Every structure is written in C-alpha cells, then in structure tokens.
Amino acid sequence: MRQAAVLLLITIGACATRAAEPAGSAPAGKPPQAKILAPLVPAADQLALLKSADPKIARNKKHVFDFWRIVYEGGHMERAAEFMTPEYVQHNPNVESGRDAFVRTIGASRKPRPVEATSHFPIISLIAEGDMVVVMWARKVRDREKPEETYQMTWFDVFRLDAKSGLIAEHWDSSERWGKAGKPPGAEFFP
C-alpha cells in the first residue's frame, strides 16, 4: 500500500511538471510540444525539510539527507557502510544491487570533495512515511531532439530504510538505461 502511494506521488509529480499542448494545437503530423506548467522551486531551507513531529521520520529523513550529501554528492564511498546495508537492493537498471556495486559504479563518477551542510542539488522536498523517504529534486537535462536546448524536470529518488538497522536497504528512481554515454541524462549539470 505504501509503495503504491509513493508511485502515485511520483506519477502525479512527473505529470504536473510538464504537460502536452491541447489536442489539435500541434501542426498535422507533428507531436504536441511539452510546456512547463510551473517553475520548479528548490526548497529555500533544506535543513527545515528534515523536521518532523515523529522522531523516527525525522531520523530517516536526516539519514537519507546525510547519505545524499556525504556519499552520493560528496563522493565519500569509504563512508557508504555508515548509511547502506551490504545487501542494498538497487532498482536502477544501470547499477547492480549491493553496497559494493554502488560504491564501484557511483564512486567511478564521484570523486571525494568537501561535504557541505546542505546539498548543491536543487532539492525541492524530502517526503517520508514509515521506512520510506523520497528526495524530490529539479534536474536539468538536454532536449533529445534539440540538444542545444535544456529544460528542467522533477526527479524522484526513493529510499527504503531497514527497520532493524536503520540503514538504506533499497532504492528506486525512474532512470532509463544510460546507453553508450555511460551516465544519466543531465549528469553534465550535476553539482
């Protein structure tokens, strides 16, 4: 039930970010062009996103946020064991499951750098319920048909924390296969 709610949230968010022009507005034989319905606004205070009246929810948000800043963004793969179970399950088709596979794959593209108090990624929100935490962020990508143009889309990373250890046990996102580039679309714009 909870996973269905997260998937619904992801679907609604993706649809709200971009929508097609009304039927019949595109020239015959041309697909409708996407329009941005509203600007994506990163949170003004990322640390405020960590707050919750429920201490477990607050702890889970902070754990994911710290993993994001220290390991994922900061490239400190030597600290992955503080945040992830060894059996970590990865649902992204480009990265194998297991903490060691994550360290190998993501570590190859993220060299260690100073860890900041907040993320340089434009985080819009952190949403949590039970053992699930969603990081919603604005992602800049190149238009596939007009590579000289870029646009922003909403990206969602979903994490499940192990109830016993409190470590990240599972991850979902909506990534396609990276193909020959060997990196996700928009990686050139990652902080």
Topology:
Blueprint lengths: L1 H16 E3 L13 E3 L18 H19 L10 E7 L8 H9 L15 E7 L2 E11 L7 E12 L6 E5 L19
Parallel strand pairs: 3-7
Antiparallel strand pairs: 1-2, 4-5, 5-6, 6-7
Explain how this protein is built.
This protein has helices at 2-17, 55-73, 99-107, and strands spanning 18-20, 34-36, 84-90, 123-129, 132-142, 150-161, 168-172. 23% of the residues lie in helices and 25% in strands. It has one domain: Nuclear Transport Factor 2, Chain: A, CATH 3.10.450. Strand 6 and strand 7 form a beta hairpin. Mean pLDDT is 81; it is low at 4-26. The chain is built from 3 helices and 7 strands; from the N terminus they run H-E-E-H-E-H-E-E-E-E. The strands form 2 sheets. Strands 3-7-6-5-4 form a 5-stranded mixed sheet, with helices on both faces. A two-stranded antiparallel ribbon has the order 1-2. The protein is of the alpha+beta class. The chain starts with a helix and ends in a 19-residue tail after the last strand.
